[in-house]
Amino acid sequence: MSIPTRAAVVESGGAPFTLSDVQLDEPGPHEAVVRMVATGLCHTDLGVASGGLPFPLPGVLGHEGAGVVEAVGPAVTGVAPGDHAVLSFTSCGDCRNCRGGHPAYCATWLPLNLIGGRRADGTGTISRGGEELGGHFFGQSSFAERALVDGRSLVKVDPEVPLASIAPLGCGVQTGVGAVWNVLKPVTGSTVVVLGAGAVGLSAVMAAALTPATHIVAVDRVDERLSLAKELGATHTVNAAEADLGEALAEITGGQGADGVVETTGNVGVLRQGVDALAARGTLVVVGAPPFGTEVALDVNGLLGGKQIVGLTLGDADTQTFIPALVRLVKDGRLPLHRLISTYPFADIDQAARDMGAGKAIKPVLTF
In this predicted structure, what is the pLDDT of residue 58? Predict the structure, then answer.
């Protein structure tokens, strides 16, 4: 039997989010029904809603959900009704990368999470008036009062931590933190540069502040965000609208260059500047995602000093261990995620999207 709920539906590319009565399919053996308490709004949601990715519309997005489990299928393990859960991406669990502890690089990641709109078996999860809607977004489609969630998207979390304070862990925060902890792995005396002081970039700054890195440099074009970055652990800031990035980084590093760079802007010009600013054997992590097919020109000889460029999805994290660790850091006040969050009632989702697009909100979180 289907489950009625209310969801924010995007009717077509570029259309606003509109609240609508929908029906969730009956949960399968590997699925759970979760009553949403909070859901983060991410730039990926806005990109899909704009029509920039081939997700089937009309559809229901949302992939930073947090809520209370109401029902579970017989094959779901690790959570039970009444548990608090953060929702993240899903994966097949059986391919080489999943078995090797890298589910963010699942062989079927794109159709399961970003562009498919259906379960792996091709069946839909959400309908309206008997017509199927695009759903199963990141295994959750959490822009709804209730979500039908794939079991591998569910992460049980400490019920003492308010869910609105940790919803963004499912995507943006684990991406920024994972870029630093799982890829750059700064050692004593390292210089880490974060290009872009949005939610992902500021998460990377907070993560770097919990490492032995000596210099943590935040780069943006908005002074308010750079001031916040300084409060969250950046030792230096650069306003790229006012200073030459290469010259500024050379001065900060004494001409040595950066050991690690996290590129979050999706701007290929900025990415090129980041590569050029790397020290010998330095690593740049590509997090920002420009439109499909975008290319960047690089100085090949400039790479021969051992520079590495690494693409990253979802922090290359094992969500079942990574997210609970982040929750503990939030609880202990060591990851001040609340400094990024602006809350909005679910009914104001379109306003939240506009504020995020205009740069007025770093990380909008919808509350139910």
Answer: 98
